[in-house]
Design brief:
Length: 147
Amino acid sequence: MIGQQSCRCCGEGKLKPRMLASLRLLEKRTGVPFLINSGCRCDEWNKKSGGHKRSHHKIVNGFGNAVDGWMLLLTIRDLYYAALEIPNFSHGQIGLYFTETGWFIHLADCGYKHRFAYNYCATLGKMVEIDFDDALRMLESQELSYV
Ligand SMILES: [Zn+2]
Ligand SMILES: [Zn+2]
């Protein structure tokens, strides 16, 4: 893993052991490191970074349960399908973000299956939630140079 698990503003928190094990398994299967862009978040940082109120990034009893990031050499499509092979992620949260400048994935070992996707809307100038199946179609599309 590259990057920090703990909160970027205060250094608090670390990933729950089972979440960490799932991430390590993903790295073992793909052979490349996961680059954490956002790991654990204290309440304040979660608010500042626009996280959901009940985000799994939030630190509970010292642990967070979600990461945002990407993996070296993998396309978002490859990473999505690799994550599906990890039981705690396929039965957990997988979020796809297509930002103005690139993509990243959200993974959480939260114990229930949840999929979501956000895409940058140039007209509104912000990220908007899109249908997950549409996002999957975007993954298969040749039009997006960064997938
Ligand atoms: Zn913090
Ligand atoms: Zn996230």
